[in-house]
Amino acid sequence: MAVRACGLIIYRRLKSAPSSKVTDCIEYLLLQTSYGTHHWTPPKGHVDPGEDDLQTAFRETQEEAGLQASQLTLIEGYKKELHYPVHGKPKTVTYWLAEVKDCNTEIKLSEEHQAFQWLKLEDACKFAEYEDMQAMLKEVHQFLCSKE
Fold first, then answer.
1. Nearest C-alpha neighbor of 122 from the set 17, 18, 30, 19
2. Contact between 13 and 99 (Cβ < 8 Å)
3. Bridge-partner residues for 119, per DSSP?
4. φ and ψ at 143, to 5 degrees?
5. Does the first or last residue of the chain, that is N or C, have fewer Cβ atoms within 10 Å of its Cβ?
6. Do the Cβ atoms of 16 and 26 come closer than 8 Å?
7. In Å, how far are 33, 81, 85 from 23, measured between CA atoms?
8. What is the secondary structure of 7-41 as a DSSP string?
9. What pLDDT sits at residue 23?
10. The pTM is what?
11. Count of CA atoms in the C-beta half-sphere (13 A) of 126
12. Mean pLDDT, 10 residues at a time, over the chain (148 residues)?
C-alpha cells in the first residue's frame, strides 16, 4: 500500500510592467525542509484519518506555510499525482494548484521547514532537485500560460 500525501503548488503574480509577459510575473513558493537533505518542495503532507485529499492539502499548507484557505484561490482544472519511493516504500503525492490572493501575504514556516523562496520557473526547477517535480512545475507553468 502506497503512502499517500497531498499538497498545493502555490504561486503568486507580481504586478508587472506593461511590456512584460504575464508568465514572467509568476513565482512559485518552495519550502526548504529542516530535515534530511534539506530539499525544496511545495507544502504537502500525509493524509490524516477522516480527511479527504484536498482538505489535507489545505491543512498542510496552513501548517507548513501559514497560509489559510481563505488567502488562496484554488485553480480549477489542475491536479497531478507524483509517484516515487521513499525509504523503499511507494509514495503517492497529489498536488492541486492555488494562487495567493495577495502577493505580499506573509509566509510563516513551521518547524518542519527552515526557509522559503518565491521563485520564477527556471529558478524553481533548479531548487527542486527531483525530475518529476521539475516536470510538474513546467507543466503547471504551461497550464497557467494557456489560461491567459
1. 30
2. yes
3. 28
4. -60, -45
5. N
6. no
7. 27, 24, 33
8. EEEEEEE----TTS-GGGGEEEEEEEESSTT--EE
9. 58
10. 0.92
11. 6
12. 91 73 82 91 95 97 97 96 89 96 95 96 94 96 86
